[in-house]
Amino acid sequence: MTLTDRPEDVIDPVDDTDPVITALLAPAYRWATVGMVSLVFLAAFEALAVTTIMPSVSADLDGRAWFSAAFSATLAASVVGMVAGGLWSDRSGPRLPLLASVAVFAGGLLLAGLAPGIELFVAARFLQGLGGGAMTVALYVVVARIYAPIDHPRIFGAFAAAWVIPSMVGPSVAGVVQEAFGWRWVFLGVVALAVAATAMLVPALRSIADNPERSSVATRGRLALAAVVAGAVVALDLAGRAEAALGFAAAALALVVVLVAVRPLLPGGTLVVRRGLPAVVALRGAIAATFFSSEIYLPYLLQEHYDVRPWLSGATLTVGALGWAGASQVQARLGSRLGDHAALRAGAALLLAGIGGELAATALHLTPVLIGAAWVLAGAGMGLMFPRISAVVLAASSERDQGRNSAAMSISDAVGGATAISLTGLVFTTVGPASQWAPFVAVLSLTSVLAAAALLVSRRTSAVLG
């Protein structure tokens, strides 16, 4: 069982002829719902909060050269966590994998909050990604074991809401906590909440029967490949700390290893953007690479060059999240009136316009208001594309391949984002100090190129969309 297997494929219907909807807070579901939604909320909050406080963390721990590694290591580790969590859940059921993954995630939070140096902080972020990836998979398996199929859409909708709310308030809340208590409490405060959420979930876990199930997606071979990918991504990021020539040579080698190791985890032809499903999966990785490798530098830019306070710099991420959520609702309401191919091309164009706007505003030292406005465009582009890509991947897959292809989509997302963050980190540390504008201009120039590439990739998705 993996993160992206359909729950309908792993649980027998309660009543095929007369299904009964059960409230998510009914006694049968109450503690499972509260505990799981709380864990998803905390994971989402942490992922978004770090972007706001990371400039202060890197300054306090003298770790500017490690800035991007704090993000890329987490994403890379999540790939290992997803595959490992699926493999473990297949073999023993989801109870132990879930509890262990929460423990690893909380341990990473605790270590990050107490880290005396940047190296240990990055190691803590790796643990957070490892635990978070496995936790997400295990939670989905728990849903399949506890909830009736008719109730799956609503619990997954609750998971989605648990991501949307932190995206709107998390960055600013993290900034407020940082200013009031210090950045360490953004991590330490979540540890106790994660323990409480898990405690609420334990009674529900006791009712789960362990029925191990084999999966073609979670295998030891794929786990080994995921580990190689994660290691190569971290090596790619760390290459920026070597001397110029040696660093770029090491980065090139690490990038080759990433591409070779990730290839078997994706549909054939993904890396060469073959028309159809491979291009759709490639697009998911391309837009994740573009968006997330740009996003992490926006609060840094605002705090460093515009003297914007941390809580207010986080508002830039909030308006981007609003653009994302708004566009997601628009595409949902339009439905078939907005064709899938049209949605993907329009979304890619909006993403390019948003990243290009960020580059222009930064290069010309324009008002920070324009930085926020451009990020709304980028977020809207993502909102148009993300739901449609997920729907297209499922529609283009046979019942036997849905889990594999959906997992490949998630892996493309995580590896694309992690690799791009590592590359932008290499550029950022090479060009100059953060006190200058040049490193930010260089990063946004690179992500603008990635956005243009994503637009080209979107044009090759038409074969699968019809």
Structure description:
There is one protein chain. This protein has 466 residues and is an all-alpha fold. The protein has 3 domains: 1-9 and 23-218, Growth Hormone, Chain: A (Up-down Bundle); 224-265; 266-466, Growth Hormone, Chain: A (Up-down Bundle). It is 76% helix and 0% strand. The longest helix is centred in the N-terminal third of the chain and has 31 residues, at 30-60.
State the helicity in percent bands.
over 70%
The CATH architecture of the largest domain can be given as: Up-down Bundle
CATH topology of the largest domain: Growth Hormone, Chain: A
Structural class: mainly alpha
Mean pLDDT rating = 84
Would you state the CATH class of the largest domain? Mainly Alpha
Tally of domains? 3
Query: Largest sheet, described in full?
Result: none
**Which descriptor suits the 3D outline?**
globular
Write the layout of secondary structure elements.
Elements: H1 30-60, H2 69-92, H3 95-114, H4 118-146, H5 152-181, H6 184-205, H7 220-238, H8 244-262, H9 277-295, H10 298-305, H11 310-334, H12 340-363, H13 368-395, H14 402-431, H15 438-458, H16 462-465
